[in-house]
Amino acid sequence: MPHLPFYCGDMSLKKRGRTTVILISILMILMIGISRIYLGVHYPSDVVGAYFASGFWFAFSVWIFQWYMENRAKRVRSIER
After folding, report:
1. Which class for 65: exposed (0-12), middle (13-18), buried (19 or more C-beta within 10 A)?
2. CB neighbour class for 33 (10 Å; exposed up to 12, middle 13-18, buried from 19)
3. pTM score over 0.85
4. Is the sign of the CA dihedral 36, 34, 30, 64 positive or negative?
């Protein structure tokens, strides 16, 4: 789910729409974590650990995506010459 606002941000959404998608995504992620604690399915440390792990994975995925797009653009430019 955290990838949704990132990919939507690259699409045709205006700044206000992007901000709305990001805020709704963050709110849903937080509410799901809180509900897991409330229902007694997970300890708070489990949820916080999952937030950190997913944040790392998201940052890594964005970095790989941006690296790929930059290299792809360089390859296209070199082919056009």
Report:
1. middle
2. middle
3. no
4. negative
